[in-house]
Design a protein that fits this description.
Number of strands: 21
Radius of gyration: 23 Å
Shape: globular
CATH architecture of the largest domain: 3-Layer(aba) Sandwich
Distance between the termini: 52 Å
Number of domains: 2
CATH class of the largest domain: Alpha Beta
Length: 524
């Protein structure tokens, strides 16, 4: 055994392998107390974090749950519930030593049995359970040791395990057999515990008095580090109407909001009681096809749709002009960015679209655009796309439901819709692996016929996970992106900036992929 995982992984991701002695005083809440109300723009479909990829669920649940590993401020893997990790020289064994003294919200001490039960449930019903495809088994030789044994070495395993896209959160072992989507009362180890849920209205959390911060750090970093609940309670209030979020922030009814419309910013910036916080490259706006349902089961129809689109027009409507064009599934500032497949992007070619439609034998069948009004950018993207498709003779129709319903339809049925509108934000920030996992089973978002992955995508995905060098894995990512775009398994429009806001008496709130409520306090 060696007390370091593969040099390539940790050179690239900077994983902290064990606790280090504190060299400075850890964070201490400057003020304790207060009730923070956060205006969230979309309703949740569940608080069962293992079974949901939605931002709205993650925003809330990940303040209550924790994981073996997570990511720091720069999205590098770090330890969270584990205090140390060793990897065998052959890459086939990972041994985690758990932090001691950690208790769940119900008062039960956490042991390796709870970690094993959490992995058991994830392997059965986790929405991205392919993370564990290459794992042979896990073992619990003692209450504070958890061992993962691999079928073969996988250079990207730590990257996958530390992702908080749909993470393997740890809960008490007695909840192991809870059915999918039925974890209605999260019991985790995080700094906040659940108080109440009112569907469509709000979710309220309170400080968990038994929380044990990670003393390997002095400050919060990313979604890990040294965390403290300074606030008495946090209420995530569902406020889907942008104007209502602006009004609530101005009056103080809301102490923070997830998203502010661009047009409101000039006025808000003049208000000394409000702090504006920008988060660049918030998400990539995307429409994903249903390739199991006519007429988008025909690649020529999908290519016609792709050829017709004007991405500037779509993104301008989605973001009030606060956007940037970019092809593919990473942001241009990231070292893993590739423009592979760029020849398919932003074509704005009506003649080519009509040519493809003729070749496809298209006869005016409806193309149903499944969207929601909870997220205005998704609705506006669908509205403009509908107009562009109609302009080339495609019978595009809107199907507008709330956000949780649209997600449930996309996940559970291949009937009655052709494109689902969403945004990929957390996953591109985490890297290519987290993003392209959207395009393989068990939850491939292009809904392949019979649930069988495209062979080209599957081969590239395997190489992304198993090739020994970073250059080879990057080549596989570029190959997978190119295949996805050429076969129109996804339509990435481009990226835009998210603008959040808090009242000026709110301190410590720093925009991240998830609104972090630990280490946030109010001055009065």
């Amino acid at each position: 055994m060696r007390v370091a995982a593969s040099a390539a992984i940790f050179a690239a991701f900077g994983v902290v392998l064990s606790s280090t002695l504190a060299v400075a005083a850890p964070f201490k809440c400057p003020n304790v107390g207060g009730n923070f109300v956060f205006g969230q723009e979309a309703n949740i479909n569940t608080l069962d974090q293992m079974t949901s990829l939605t931002i709205s669920t993650r925003n809330i649940a990940m303040n209550m749950y924790e994981t073996l590993m997570t990511r720091d401020e720069n999205n590098n893997p770090i330890l969270e519930l584990a205090e140390a990790m060793t990897e065998a020289p052959d890459g086939l064994t990972y041994t985690f030593k758990l932090r001691q003294g950690i208790k769940f919200h119900n008062g039960k001490p956490m042991t390796s049995a709870d970690v094993a039960a959490s992995f058991d449930r994830y392997a059965k019903i986790g929405i991205q359970r392919s993370t564990l495809d290459n794992v042979d088994r896990w073992e619990t030789p003692d209450p504070f040791t958890f061992i993962i044994r691999m079928k073969q070495a996988q250079p990207t395993f730590i990257e996958a395990l530390s992702s908080f896209s749909a993470p393997i959160v740890v809960f008490p072992s007695e909840l192991r057999d809870t059915p999918s989507m039925q974890m209605t009362k999260p019991i985790g180890t995080g700094p906040f515990e659940l108080m109440e849920v009112s569907p469509g209205s709000h979710v309220k959390m309170k400080r968990y008095e038994g929380y044990q911060p990670n003393t390997a750090y002095q400050e919060r970093t990313g979604f890990g580090g040294y965390k403290q609940a300074c606030l008495d309670t946090v209420t995530f209030r569902i406020v889907t109407e942008p104007g209502a979020r602006v009004a609530g922030l101005k009056t103080g009814e809301l102490q923070g909001v997830e998203d502010l419309p661009t047009k409101s910013l000039p006025e808000l910036k003049k208000d000394p009681n409000i702090t504006i916080l920008a988060l660049n490259n918030w998400w990539i706006q995307i429409a994903n096809p249903n390739t199991s349902f006519p007429p988008t089961d025909n690649v020529l129809v999908r290519k016609a749709i792709q050829a017709a689109l004007d991405m500037d027009e779509i993104l301008d409507a989605a973001s009030d002009g606060n956007y940037r064009l970019n092809v593919g599934f990473q942001y241009p500032n990231q070292p893993t960015y590739t423009d592979a497949g760029k020849e398919t992007y932003n074509l704005r070619d009506a003649a080519l679209a009509k040519k493809y439609l003729t070749q496809a034998g298209y006869k005016g069948e409806p193309v149903i655009l499944l969207t929601n009004k909870d997220y205005a950018p998704m609705y506006n993207s669908a509205l403009v796309m509908q107009q562009q498709l109609q302009a080339v003779g495609i019978n595009a129709q809107m199907k507008v439901v709330d956000w949780p319903t649209s997600v449930q339809m996309m996940q559970n049925t291949t009937e009655g819709w052709n494109f689902h509108f969403t945004g990929w934000g957390t996953q591109p920030a985490l890297g290519p692996l987290a993003t392209m996992q959207f395009l393989v089973q068990p939850g491939a978002m292009y809904k392949p016929k019979g649930g069988i992955d495209d062979a080209d995508l599957l081969a590239a995905w395997k190489d992304m996970n198993t090739k020994t060098t970073a250059a080879e894995r990057q080549e596989a990512f570029a190959r997978m992106q190119k295949a996805v775009l050429e076969k129109v398994y996804s339509l990435p429009f481009g990226s835009f900036t998210k603008v959040q806001g808090v009242r000026s008496n709110v301190k410590g709130f720093v925009p991240f992929r998830i609104p972090r409520m630990a280490n946030v306090w109010m001055t009065n």
